[in-house]
Amino acid sequence: MIEALSYEFVQNALIAGILVSIASGIIGSLIVVNRMVFLAGGIAHTAYGGIGMAIYFGLPIFLGASIFAVVSAFIIAFITLNHRHRMDTFIGLMWAVGMALGVVLVDLTPGYNVDLMSYLFGSILAVSHNDLYYMGGLLALIVFIMVFWYRDILAVSYDSEYASLRGINVRFFYTLILILSALTVVVAIKVVGLILVIALLTIPVYIAEKLSNTLYMMMILSGIFSSIFTLIGLVFSYSYDISSGASIILISALSLFAFLIIGVLKSSKFDI
What's the predicted TM-score (pTM) here? Predict the structure, then answer.
């Protein structure tokens, strides 16, 4: 693996993995705390329509997917805030329509024959310098928002009624979290793919949640764990010539399994 570091595409992959891992750790923590995993999954699959739109109209993939994902986030925020009893139906509909639209637009694109598996399972080795700028800009935006509005987001995440009584605009911050989730999902698709993106946003967070007492520490630990899993997954992928996205998620899942086993063994030891 050491000799591979001389290749620019490998360097880009490592940088992209770290940037997306930190962003996923922060936003994944918010997704889990706010119980938005299903909503984030809906946005992830709906974003496929944006990929198809970008390919059909000749736009940058990140731009098309981001626009589509943000619009989806606005719609999902409106539905969950105003029609919660119909939430599952609407999100399931958006999920299916988004993916179907993406497939149709790709099929209608003249002469396009690129393997779409890269969008389903990730293509981190194909990350360009422009992709890195986008990822770095998104991470900077996320960090800025979290630093500037941390107390408000914390209040909304753990007790929205209390936050509302304090005069915090709950609707605004709820929608903001969904928009940031949508943008993070888009960049994470490049690393692990649309199918596996939710695992990247939740597995490191679950481990971090058990080891932290505050949302702030949970975000930091999630980013660290996610970065470690991503780097190990890339090494594993390079060594055995297998899909990088699947490798990252398998490493994450095995780490979670080991964490759970250690927890059970510790509990049994104390019981004895």
Answer: 0.90
